[in-house]
Amino acid sequence: MALFDLDLPALQTYRPELDEPADFDAFWATTLDETRTHDLDLRTTPVDTGMPLVDVLDAEFAGFGGHRIKAWVVRPARAITGDARLPAVVQYIGYNGGRGLPHEALAWPAAGYVALVMDSRGQGSRSGSGGHTPDPVGSGPAAPGYLTRGILDPHDHYVRRLFTDGVRAVEAARAVEGVDPARVAVAGASQGGGIALAVAGLVPDLAGVIADVPFLCHIRRAVDLTDRDPYAEITRYLAVHRGHADDAFRTLSYLDAVTFARRATAPALFSVALRDPVCPPSTVYAAYNSYADLTSGAPTEIDVYRYNEHEGGGGHRFVRQLPWLTGLVGPAATVGRAAGSGA
Predict the structure, then answer these.
(1) Is 334's pLDDT higher than 70?
(2) 95 annotated as ligand-binding
(3) What is the pTM of this model?
């Protein structure tokens, strides 16, 4: 796809005014308070995957409404040795994907980190290797997909539940045996990047935030700028429900990742693709340029992929992310070697 959004100099200074709800902070404080009336109730079951260099736990915890959320925990084998504690990365999944299979989450454990891969409730049946978490909450009339489920009231919207699950996933990671709770970061691409930014605005003491080509940023502009899914779900809904635009965009204003990003405090590493028709570059820069505006500030970096679409940096991202995060949290503690290693 050709370049279609603002040019790079304009992107670097792009700071739109958002329709931020006056009760945004109260809304989310109440949401999390209500969620925390349910015990986290983290449960983990060891899984024999035939991979002796990692321990895999099939995990679940109480998310929004106390609903059970599945996750994989993958950590270096023999990671629990004495008082050693490892850093952890909570990973959020792209739109329509699920937690998949544990062997798909080996990069961070291979580097000495604990990885917690959160399932996205109700998703995981259109791409990837599948999901395992239902969303037991219904909604009014909606377009196929997730963006218009509960779109007329922020209390009912699907993304409210998803973002809350993301916060609880951090709490679950901190409760995993052998994790250093002070060295927990969040990461994701596309929808996962949007969740990471939302969690960054709701959890004040993260070690770092990695948001690649993040979705759910500057939602109103995205709807006007792109005809690609998932944002096109909103367009299709409003094309039928012609009188619902004001209520719909009011609801979405409680869920815009830019508004969360303004409240973040942890260092952040972004990426953007200038030919991305799914998450247009100006929407990503809206979050990047506003990051930590309302707090004491935090160091931020953004990697620009001029010739890429929504795949962004692809597999090249981990090569960049690992030294960046290690520079923040320090090297992972030395863990025991696998049997037969000769050491």
Answers:
(1) no
(2) yes
(3) 0.95
